[in-house]
Design brief:
Layout (H helix, E strand, L loop, with lengths): L1 E5 L4 H12 L3 E6 L10 E5 L7 H5 L3 E4 L10 H21 L4 E7 L25 H19 L3 E7 L2 E2 L8 H11 L2 E5 L4 E2 L2 E2 H11 L10 E6 L5 E2 H9 L8 E4 L13 E2 L3
Parallel strand pairs: 1-2, 1-4, 2-3, 4-5, 5-6, 6-11, 7-10, 8-13, 8-14
Antiparallel strand pairs: 9-12
Helix pairs in contact: 1-6, 3-4
Length: 274
């Protein structure tokens, strides 16, 4: 199978592409950076993902769209530009060049609910009430994708992924910060310890995405929406404690009950995640 993959250099993209290549796939991967490591059966394409990649899209069996801008790396303008307008341009190019199977990676942020701190059972009837620009932009693009799939006789599978963690994640995020503090015996502050998350390992996510590329397993007219999670919601403090104890660290866990407080590094013996 030949894949046109956006976001191949990102956290999930690296894990997914590794699995796909291992299973015999070839990947076309647009990138803004000049130099990339050479990877067997992966061809880097120099440029933005919404450029006119005629040759590559014509040669691809499926489009897997992982690339996105979020609040950690972009302002509101860039978030909407990338997640809606440029992503729609990508789909229009895919339609133009007959790449009509789409695996679209979205997010549980479409639903909002972070502030409500509740565990609910998600379904097609669950209301989407995004709480930030990222969630809203992804919700708008999801609807646009579904409309385009219906109009141009394409097949779109929307993957709403819940919070992902694992090796290869940005070092400032919870999981890598936690492991680093545990290994070094540092004190580790937990922000928002009593909020609930459905943490999902990146290896699990990559396997689900790979299996979801098979559009022949289930027949559908234009689109499906999948929820991707391990379905094991837990308090953030429980998640942290579980991995903290693996290393039997010398440092201590400190709960921050005031969720609006952001801790700074007070010394070399303290760690923080945002």
């Amino acid at each position: 199978m030949k894949i046109f993959l956006t976001g191949a250099s990102g956290f999930i993209g690296k894990n997914f592409s590794k699995l796909a290549i291992k299973n015999g796939c070839f990947i076309y991967a647009p990138t803004r950076k000049n130099k990339r490591n050479k990877i067997k059966n992966l061809k880097w394409l120099r440029g933005d993902f919404d450029l006119d990649w005629k040759k590559e899209l014509l040669d691809s069996d499926i489009l897997v769209h992982l690339a996105a801008s979020d609040l950690r790396i972009a302002d509101s303008k860039e978030i909407y530009e990338t997640n809606i307008f440029r992503s729609i341009n990508l789909l229009k190019n895919a339609i133009k060049y007959k790449c009509k199977k789409w695996l679209i990676i979205s997010t549980s942020s479409e639903y909002g609910l972070k502030k409500k701190n509740k565990c609910i059972k998600f379904s097609k009837q669950t209301n989407r009430i995004p709480e930030d620009d990222y969630g809203l932009s992804k919700a708008i693009f999801t609807d646009s994708c579904i409309n385009l799939a219906r109009k141009f006789n394409c097949k779109a599978r929307i993957m709403r992924i819940f919070p992902v963690y694992g090796f290869g994640e940005n070092k400032k995020r919870l999981y890598p910060s936690l492991l680093k503090a545990a290994k070094k015996g540092n004190v580790f502050f937990i922000k928002n310890p009593f909020e609930t998350r459905d943490f999902t390992n990146v290896k699990f996510v990559s396997k689900i995405l790979f299996d979801a590329m098979n559009f022949n397993k289930k027949k559908f007219k234009s689109h499906q929406v999948w929820h991707v999670s391990e379905n094991k919601p837990e308090l953030i403090k429980s998640f942290v404690k579980k991995y903290w104890e693996i290393y039997n660290p010398k440092g201590k866990l400190i709960l921050n009950k005031k969720s609006n407080v952001i801790f700074d590094h007070i010394s070399d013996k303290k760690s923080v995640w945002e």
